[in-house]
Amino acid sequence: MTRDAFPAAPGDSESLEPKGLEPDAGGQPWLSEAERRALRKRTPDSAIVFALAFTGIVVSFMMTLVTPLLPELPHLLHVSTPDAMWVVTATLLSAAIITPIGGSLGDLYGKRRILLILLAAVVLGSVIAAFSSTLIPLVIGRVLQGAGLGAIPLGISILRDVLHRDRLGKAVALVSATLGIGGAVGLPVSAVIAQYLDWHMLFWLSGVLAAAGFVLVYTLVPVSTLRTGGRFDAPGAIGLALALSGILLAVTKGNEWGWLSPLTLGFGTAGVAILAVWVLYQLRTRHPLIDIRVATRRTVLLTNLTSVMVGFAFFSSAVALPMLLETPTGTGVGLGQSMLVASLCLMPSGLVMWAMSGTAARLTAARGARVSLLLGITIIAVAYALALLLMTEVWHTLLVATAVGFGVGFAYAAMPTLIMGAVPSSETAASNGLNSVMRTLGSTAASAVIGLVLATNLVTVGDLTTPSTLGFQLSFAISAAAGVLGIVLTLFIPRRQAQYGAAALPE
After folding, report:
1. Per the domain annotation, does 331 fall within a domain?
2. How large is the average pLDDT for residues 310-330?
3. Domain that holds residue 275
4. CA pair distance 461, 453, nearest whole angstrom
């Protein structure tokens, strides 16, 4: 059975009787008897939002979990530095691949069910990593942890299914902001554990947090009843995984392998070629993993392209600012701070994203999501313009990071709303998953580009070599340019959405 029509919003008189209880086209009910009983239990909206927001913070924490360990990983694992970097690369690849696939599975088989599976994967990955003392099992654990990032778009889509539209905006803004909150707040926690305790404690902590998230979702989040018909597009999932793997490997390993090396060119070219074939296949198959026709609607396409710019600009601050703070002062460039101090300087960025979620939601409700996105990306561009002039004091980096957090808070709150306003209700999880992938692509590109700029613009004084002032200025200028491009893309997003009868967010 397809679910093309938008159901009455929760809280409306028509929605008092749970949907999805009727049998599907094959004569089987959507829900089991146990699921029906659970659905009749009324859970407070605040409890649902708390469970999903907590889950978002936990899974985003996984992305920065090992950052404080990176300088020590080669020694701890008895491997080379390039090999140790697979602990990070594997997580990025896993997150980018699993997120859209998990969204599609959620639309088909229930968002809550897939969310629980992803959280279980994070718990399993944490346990494997906690017992690891060599590279391979640690990478396997990090792959499973990276899969959890798909919980954020699933959580946003669940909110759309279960909350009244009057309460939806603020909740979406909060859960969307967790992508930055978990990383920013978790970074100093990771730094303290890595510095003063056994590094395996990082993974025991992540496992406990993921298990708590699993319990909260299982206990508080209602069973998903809004599902689409059809079957899972396994060939499409494999094709997308291969395409993203090739592209992301070329981007993340370009600095190490050489941008013109056969490996980089081979993986990049293969990834793009597979992606082109994948798009043609998605257009022709009856049950695509991602509906390309929906994804290329003007609002969806431009929002996703803007997401790349926002992801780039956001992650640039996570690369350049800690480097500026931690670089020794001997060359007259760095600020000579510890990893813990640098983490604390970045933490307000995530806290601001959380604090601004309510304001961003009110602005979106009053003026539209496009205005909120435009304001956010403009603040980001201005923040990096200021960074070109303010880079000689610790409080300068704190100011820039906080301003970027303000901008990202508004932008992240707006993007899911723009997406859900332009896609069918049966494709919210898959479409939000694709939007998250675009953010990840932007973040990955920022890591490669800013890393390359800082690595190739150096200054040497005596025996000390560090990134130069010009290197940091170029990094900030590129990030500001990404913000300006995001502004241009946002200006082309339609002011008024086209009226789709099956839009996920009704007028």
Report:
1. yes
2. 87
3. 234-286
4. 19
